[in-house]
Write a structure and sequence with these properties.
This protein has 434 residues and is an alpha/beta fold. The chain has 12 helices and 20 strands. Strands 8-7-16-17-18-15-19 form a 7-stranded mixed β-sheet, sandwiched between helices. A 5-stranded parallel β-sheet has the order 10-2-1-14-20, covered by helices on one side. It has a 3-stranded antiparallel β-sheet with strand order 5-9-6. It comes from Myxococcus fulvus.
């Protein structure tokens, strides 16, 4: 029987993972990436010997990403963030011990005593919270029912921001937020050696080894649909590539642009609210304060982390630091000076050891905020486009499982199940790891 022809549009992690899974399942897969490089927002740039990701990236050890990568035989290399301590809460320009366990919770001056007791009860019960009834509950509302004092609510809000990258807790679904915090508490996160480009390279290698064709600098102009059924792709040179199924691995607007007459996809794109952040990447010849590795803003949406403390991201003795402001509709961008001020508190004297830097005022972190009004994770668009046979989408805004890269991996796996089931092929696992 002739192999099912599948075209994947987009060479980010979602598209590459889809290509790898389907090629291993026996499909004839061709991936089209419009830029010269694979990876999308998982690209890594070398700047003066420092490996800069596009903003701070972390891989949840208990998330869908690790599950799918394990099936592909890819073993991410790095260390669990936070193992070395040195974590602080930032309030009013001062650092306070960030509670990470019972001892630090008792000794920190970031919380009043009554808030410490509430926090202890919340953390002890959080893993058992059933998130399904919380789909239409705003995170802020849920938090107000669990923490009576403002200092406690502010600290939990900071933990939610670092887990979800979302700052608008009035809109964010408590189902999505609590689920993400549960993942973080279960097994923590990995910072990856050599940046996320190493992960991109590994997944791309699996796809190619399985027979997938990966084309870069290949611009797709549209999806060819006849009588409600996908027939292929139309490229920028006017050629048409036939396909039994098409998987679109881009933003909601990218998807809608490839089917410009589709009102349903246009509406989804119009209503999608992305998660954004302002980011500052810094390469330092050394850390002025070697013990200060991590800070979360409690009275503001701030983040700073020395990623090189847990992953190989720069020259020997150097430090690679990510600084970030979580953005929201009320605060849609940030100045570089705001992020520099966070570093002034965490690492005073950093300017004297600065080697490399990069600032982005409003980087897209995820293409869709899972809101309470739309039903949280379960309210996101499904991987299969219901009104076009053979059309699928994957990405951090698709499907009912996971946020951030986990959603990309999980939606790729959902497409694999759908297409291989229709082809009568059972998804398989690699016998050995990478």
């Amino acid at each position: 029987m002739e192999a099912k022809k599948v075209a994947v549009v987009g060479g980010g992690l979602g598209g590459l993972t889809t290509a790898a899974l389907l090629a291993r399942g026996g499909c004839a897969v061709t991936l089209y990436e419009r830029s010269k490089h694979l990876g999308g927002r998982a690209q890594t740039t070398d700047v003066e010997g420092f490996r800069f990701n596009l903003g701070p990236h972390a891989l949840y050890r208990a998330g869908a990403g690790m599950r799918v990568l394990g099936r592909l035989g890819v073993k991410p290399r790095g260390r669990v963030a936070g193992e070395s301590g040195g974590s602080y809460a930032l309030r009013a320009g001062r650092l306070h011990t960030l509670p990470r366990g019972p001892v630090s919770l008792l000794t920190t001056d970031a919380l009043q005593l009554s808030s410490k007791l509430e926090m202890a009860r919340l953390l002890a019960s959080l893993r058992r919270v059933d998130t399904e009834p919380l789909t239409h509950v705003p995170m802020r509302q849920w938090l107000d029912t669990r923490m009576s004092r403002e200092d406690g609510r502010a600290l939990v809000a900071a933990l939610v921001r670092v887990a979800t990258y979302a700052s608008d807790l009035d809109a964010l679904s408590a189902e999505a937020a609590v689920t993400q915090v549960q993942l973080a508490l279960e097994a923590g996160v990995l910072y990856l050696d050599d940046g996320w480009a190493a992960l991109v390279d590994a997944v791309a290698a699996v796809a190619k080894d399985a027979g997938a064709t990966l084309e870069v600098s290949a611009r797709v102009e549209g999806v060819v649909v006849e009588q409600g059924q996908v027939r292929g792709l139309r490229l920028s040179d006017g050629s048409v590539r036939a396909a039994d199924a098409v998987v679109l691995a881009g933003s909601p607007r990218d998807v809608a642009s490839l089917l410009p007459e589709d009102a349903v996809l246009a509406k989804e794109a119009e209503e999608a609210t992305p998660i954004r952040a302002a980011t500052l990447e810094l390469g330092l010849s050394r850390l002025p304060r070697s013990e200060a590795l991590f800070a979360l803003g409690v009275d503001g949406p701030w983040y700073a982390s020395v990623h090189s403390a847990y992953a190989r991201l720069g020259p020997e003795g150097g430090a690679m630091v990510h600084v970030m402001k979580y953005l929201s509709p009320s605060s849609p961008e940030a100045t570089e000076a705001e992020l520099e001020a966070v570093m002034d508190v965490l690492q005073p004297g950093w300017r004297e050891v600065l080697v490399a830097r990069r600032f982005r005022p409003a980087l897209v972190v995820s293409h869709l905020l899972p809101t309470a009004s739309t039903g949280g994770l379960s309210g996101r668009p499904a991987p299969a486009v219901p009104h076009v046979a053979g059309l699928f989408r994957v990405g951090d805004w698709v499907g009912s499982e996971g946020m951030l890269s986990d959603a990309s991996f999980a939606s790729a796996e959902s497409v694999e199940r759908a297409l291989l089931r229709h082809a009568g092929v059972a998804p398989r696992r690699l016998a050995v790891g990478a």
